[in-house]
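ARCHIVE CARD
CATEGORY: sequence design from structure
SOURCE FIELD: tokenized fold
FIELD CONTENT:
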């Protein structure tokens, strides 16, 4: 897991995709191969079963043909006439010429039949071959015994020696025979056909063989092999017969270290059994080729899927890497960075969000920077022309005490107000003050101006108690009052009144500075509004513009300025500020008055 956490994202995607695909391909390949192998083997096994069924049908046809011929000969008038004779040893037994002709006509077309005999007792009445050695009495007795048991039926023997005694005991013949009964239902004669088993079975087995490596053989009732298309070892034959006698008609048997599939078919007419066998690995000889093809197909599929996953991983990770590089640049304070983005998916949205974030950071950094500059400018302007403010404040304090000693209390009040005014402006540690402190500073300033203008200036100052602790930037009211006195009251030619009102309405604070001076012409009012938007060029009222800019920076442009002439001909300046973040209005700062 430690290794997996430390590798790159595209490698993780490749591993997480390729491994399941490889496992899935392997499982599909194995299951497909097993299914194909099973289907083919079952199909081949059905072919083997069909083969021995056809062999059994062919065997039945051949057996019935020969049975029919045997019954035809045994039931002929000539054969029945012979069976009624009481003396079998006399020469020139009647009917042999007709029997000879009949047998030649019936059996001549069967290549499997080597010889045909008609016997009365131990005397051969008819033979299709020249007489050879003496009859095999043991075999002959067995034939008569079974013919007596199964009268009027054709009997097929197991493999046995021939009817003639040749001095050897080779069991290489099949005898088909039927008995001849006299009037007393005694078996007194036989019709015997001697069949070559190889010719008999070969004609059947060879025609039905389909699969290569297939071995088919026919066994008699004792398990001896009558015929086969390939040699079968005796120990294999014994093993197969044991499994057959145990009731296994279709089975897998290991023979000589090789697994064979063996199936069998019993013939009801003869009691013989047909066996066919094939090596298990030859049921599907193309299995190795299919296995190789499956392996190659699975490997190629996994390779192609891995290539696709690699392309997909790179398509995802390349823009992520670009974002990573961009973040490092922003970390190095490159706040002007903007990444190109032509995507419309989730990564495109992420890139767009990143660009917005960097742009917002850039704006906020500039706002803070400009706010600090504006604050510093206001402080400098407020302290301008003060060569040694501390020395001047101490001097004013000395003058105040001198005036008190001389009972000049009015002048002393002015000096005290001037001292407080200087102390307020010299405190550069706090850029934000409560509205109550700002109003106290304005009151001191107005006292000084009233002393200077005497009866030409009156003022009122009203502050909503709920706004006393509301924080505002320092020195935002004094420049507005100074502007009202210098540009309004001085040029009006009449006594001036300055009104400062701070009220609360809902979640906003309204701070108004108004006068009864000369007001503004439409052109002057237009330029003043441009000044508040900070886009006026060449306008000389720097103090008012400084106030507007600092408020915009501090309140993130969520403030408004309402300026207009009053009904008594003066001028009104209202500052609208939000009291909390939740109540901030959407949009940018706008002036309430329409453009002049």
């Amino acid at each position: 897991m430690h290794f997996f956490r430390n590798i790159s994202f595209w490698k993780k995607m490749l591993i997480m995709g390729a491994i399941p695909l490889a496992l899935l391909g392997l499982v599909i390949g194995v299951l497909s191969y097993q299914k194909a192998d099973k289907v083919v083997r079952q199909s081949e096994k059905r072919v083997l079963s069909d083969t021995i069924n056809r062999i059994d049908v062919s065997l039945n046809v051949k057996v019935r043909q020969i049975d029919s011929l045997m019954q035809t000969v045994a039931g002929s008038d000539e054969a029945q006439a012979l069976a009624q004779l009481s003396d079998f040893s006399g020469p020139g037994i009647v009917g042999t010429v007709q029997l000879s002709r009949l047998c030649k006509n019936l059996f001549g077309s069967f290549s499997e039949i080597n010889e045909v005999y008609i016997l009365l007792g131990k005397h051969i009445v008819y033979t299709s071959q020249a007489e050879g050695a003496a009859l095999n009495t043991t075999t002959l007795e067995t034939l008569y015994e079974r013919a007596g048991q199964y009268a009027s039926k054709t009997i097929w023997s197991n493999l046995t020696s021939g009817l003639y005694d040749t001095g050897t005991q080779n069991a290489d013949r099949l005898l088909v025979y039927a008995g001849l009964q006299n009037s007393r239902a005694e078996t007194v004669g036989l019709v015997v056909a001697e069949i070559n088993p190889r010719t008999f079975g070969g004609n059947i087995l060879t025609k039905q063989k389909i699969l290569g490596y297939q071995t088919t053989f026919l066994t008699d009732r004792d398990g001896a092999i009558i015929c086969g298309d390939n040699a079968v070892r005796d120990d294999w034959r014994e093993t197969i017969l044991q499994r057959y006698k145990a009731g296994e008609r279709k089975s897998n048997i290991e023979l000589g270290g090789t697994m064979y599939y063996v199936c069998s078919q019993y013939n009801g007419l003869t009691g013989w059994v047909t066996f066919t066998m094939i090596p298990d690995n030859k049921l599907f000889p193309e299995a190795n080729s299919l296995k190789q093809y499956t392996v190659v197909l699975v490997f190629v599929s996994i390779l192609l899927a891995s290539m696709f996953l690699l392309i997909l991983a790179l398509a995802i990770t390349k823009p992520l890497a670009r974002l990573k590089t961009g973040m490092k640049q922003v970390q190095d304070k490159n706040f002007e960075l903007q990444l190109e983005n032509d995507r419309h998916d989730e990564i495109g949205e992420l890139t767009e969000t990143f660009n917005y974030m960097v742009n917002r950071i850039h704006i906020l950094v500039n706002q803070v920077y400009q706010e600090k500059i504006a604050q510093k400018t206001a402080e400098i302007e407020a302290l301008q022309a003060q060569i040694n403010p501390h020395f001047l404040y101490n001097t004013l304090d000395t003058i105040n005490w001198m005036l008190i000693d001389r009972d000049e209390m009015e002048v002393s009040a002015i000096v005290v107000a001037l001292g407080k005014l200087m102390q307020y402006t010299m405190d550069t540690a706090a850029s934000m003050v409560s509205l109550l402190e700002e109003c106290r500073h304005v009151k001191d300033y107005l006292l000084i101006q009233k002393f200077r203008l005497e009866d030409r200036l009156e003022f009122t100052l009203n502050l909503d108690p709920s706004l006393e602790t509301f924080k505002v930037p320092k020195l935002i009211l004094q420049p507005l009052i100074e502007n009202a006195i210098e540009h309004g009251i001085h040029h009006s030619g009449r006594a001036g009144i300055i009104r400062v009102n701070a009220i609360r309405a809902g979640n906003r604070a309204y701070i108004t500075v108004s006068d009864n001076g000369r007001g503004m012409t439409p052109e002057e009012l237009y330029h003043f509004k441009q000044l508040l938007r900070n886009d006026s060029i060449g306008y000389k009222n720097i103090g008012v513009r400084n106030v507007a800019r600092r408020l915009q920076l501090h309140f993130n442009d969520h403030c408004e300025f309402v300026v207009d002439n009053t009904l008594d001909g003066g001028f009104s300046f209202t500052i609208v500020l939000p009291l909390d973040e939740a109540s901030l209005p959407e949009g940018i700062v706008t002036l309430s008055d329409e453009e002049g």
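CARD ANNOTATION: The two ends are 71 Å apart (CA to CA). Confidence is low (pLDDT under 50) at residues 90-94, 383-388, 581-596.
SHELF: design records, drawer C
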